[in-house]
Amino acid sequence: MNSLINYRVEGNLALIGLARPPVNALGQPLRAALLDAYERASANADVQAIVIHGDSGLFTAGADISEFGSEASFAAPDLPSILVRLTQSSKPLIAAIGSIALGGGLELALACGYRIGEAKARLGLPEINLGLLPGAGGTQRLPRLIGAEPALDMMISGQPINASRALQLGLLDRLADSAETLLDSARAFAAELLASNAPARPAERFAQPAAGLPADFFASFRASNEPRWKSRLAPRLVLAAVEASCRLPLEQGLAREGELFRQAEDSAQSAALRHVFFAEREAGRIPGIDADLPLRSIEKVAVIGAGTMGGGIAMNFANAGIPVTLLEQKAEALDRGLAQIRKNYEISVKRGKLTEAQLEQRMELLQGTLGYADLADADLVIEAVFEKMEIKQQVFRTLDEVCKPGAILATNTSSLDVDAIAAVTRRPQDVIGLHFFSPANVMRLLEVVRGKATAPDVLATTMKIGKRIGKIPVVSGVCFGFIGNRMLEPYNREAHRLVLEGSTPAQVDGVLTALDLNMGVLSMTDLAGVDVNFLVRDGNRAAFANDPSYYILGDELYKLGRYGQKTGRGFYLYEGRDRKDDPEVVEIAERVAAELGVARRADITNQEIHDRCLFMLINEGIQLLDEGIALRASDIDLVWINGYGFPGHVGGPMHYAETLGLDTVLAGIRRYRDELGSHGEMWFQPAPLLERLVAAGKTRIEKI
Ligand code: 3H9
């Protein structure tokens, strides 16, 4: 038999072991081998029951995602048909689930008459995260097994459930104590089934999956969730498929699922989300650094600064079970910081996301100190003090004195020169930037800033620890603002400028949120602080001394003390949580525009707003790639999706540029360069790499 399957017969039992590392993705070759093995077992008169399992333990992570969008995804034998065939088995089929059964993997298990899982197994239908829906019977068979409501929950959340919950729901029939005993337990289960003359497939437990649910269940589910879904297609398709499972007989329901799946697979949203899936895995690969490079061990972490940022950073490590020493200058600040952390955890307890015991365990991992001497045994120190070069350098001089040799010294600066910070130490090879995003315990992005002297093992170790604390680490080179904030600059600049020229903040933000961004950039400025924005800009004035209108509106709001949400006024007016338009902002814009001789127009269209803001964002990203600050275009997408609320189903700004067409982006930039007078001439210069890509007829963004 094919090496993708380990097939063996033990007495009256056939064992089909899926053997396609690393995750038994059900690509065409494995599908063919699986069907072959099944037919063989089926035809063998000695075999009375069949166990399907993962040969190395792990069951399967589902369909092969790399096949989607090509003919391979449904190349014969296709998964839905194989699974229909399995449900027709005259012999009991048992899925023995080790580690994970996800997506098509769980659907394979659903096609078996019986399921046993090891205690640590996780089962889920995460297709929605890829802009898909379960397409191999999951939307029809799961509701019939556990009822429509929990089935819908699993598909809409995309989150796997653990084995004990699966047992409770009836998704698993049995639990095996451990991964090691799984196969033996499956053998014993098979023997019991045969001894009791159990049917090959038990009757559906929920022949009417929606029984007991209110008549308007689906309508009200849709109504309450649609605002959150924005323009996402997949949740709507999932809902339609589950609804079909309650209305249609199985065969018709399966056909309906197939149609909906094809629609999802063909969508630009799914292509974008699949791009993001592979981008996340790719981001960990660093050219020139082997995967087997020995890493430094990180057992103890220290964080300097117990403010919002430092506290949030510390929580990440405590959450991952890593002890953290939190250093502050004054006892009151330290107490306040620790109290805030406790408060944050208490909120999680209230929401049922954490138990009291877990809260206490995490707090125990957090030790406060006022003295640098307590940092002597830390393996990784992260500085999160005030964003000023002299202060940061002073901290690093001290760290150089007190930290043990080999300790990694990281700065959480959001814009300062990591090399200049490293230069004050005698160990610049151990210094790196770890740029967390606020709130640091929530936001998934971690920009890992590689200084010119940073040692490869320091970079690789911090990437690994970033993953361990649940972040998406992305490597950036050193430049003002790194990847994210440097791209924010021209994007936000255009937003400011458009208001100066006659748009309203709400119009600008509305165009961006219509693209499903979490927030418009002007609302984001109000949230982050007009003052914070001003101070960062103020540290870099020389770079735009030639443009008197550069962020002039931001400067003006700053002078008026309109710092954004925290002062109740910025680009908008805030009353509690409500955001309102403020005519005063229009007046300020009119006044400043008149002073600078900037013409105001009433004809700024949404298209112009879209193109000017987004093309500038894209252009800067392409420039960063050309400069080698970003390793690859997909890294830039991850930064914007995980740090700046860019929608995953749009794929990040680089992927979005590819869907718009690189030639369209270039033509737009040239057009505004010509149409916007001195502003256009100054800022709308296409990135040379963009010009080269278009000239070479490329449709993907890559360094050439
Ligand atoms: C589906 O099933 C549709 C059906 O309903 C209908 C069909 C008709 N395919 O994440 P890792 C690769 S949709 C291809 O680094 P971890 C991954 O790229 C599918 N490749 O490890 C990586 O490769 P590389 C529904 C896959 O331990 C390597 O495996 N299923 C797939 O952190 C290791 O992955 C999902 O959405 C795949 N399905 O996490 C599950 N899965 O080393 C998606 C993984 O070259 N997968 N790879 O970079 C996951 O959630 C995680 O990968 C998993 C492992 C939890 C499995």
Profile the largest sheet: 8 strands, mixed
Number of helices: 29
Number of strands: 18
By secondary-structure content and strand pairing, the structural class works out as alpha/beta
CATH architecture of the largest domain: Alpha-Beta Complex
Number of domains: 3
Q: Could you say what the CATH topology of the largest domain is called?
A: 2-enoyl-CoA Hydratase, Chain A, domain 1
Helix content: 40-55%
The outline comes out as globular
Highest CATH level, the class of the largest domain: Alpha Beta
The low-confidence runs, each spanning 5 or more residues with pLDDT under 50, are none
| Mean pLDDT rating | 96
- List all distinct small molecules, including ions and cofactors, that are bound in this structure: (S)-3-Hydroxyhexanoyl-CoA
CATH superfamily of the largest domain: 2-enoyl-CoA Hydratase, Chain A, domain 1
- The radius of gyration computed from the alpha-carbon positions, rounded to a whole number of angstroms, is 28 Å
Strand residue percentage: 5-15%
InterPro entries: 3-OHacyl-CoA_DH_NAD-bd, 3HC_DH_C, 6-PGluconate_DH-like_C_sf, ClpP/crotonase-like_dom_sf, Enoyl-CoA_hydra/iso, NAD(P)-bd_dom_sf
Protein name: Enoyl-CoA hydratase/isomerase family protein
Domain 3-hydroxyacyl-CoA dehydrogenase NAD binding: 300-476
Keywords: Fatty acid metabolism, Isomerase, Lipid degradation, Lipid metabolism, Lyase, Multifunctional enzyme, NAD, Oxidoreductase, Peroxisome
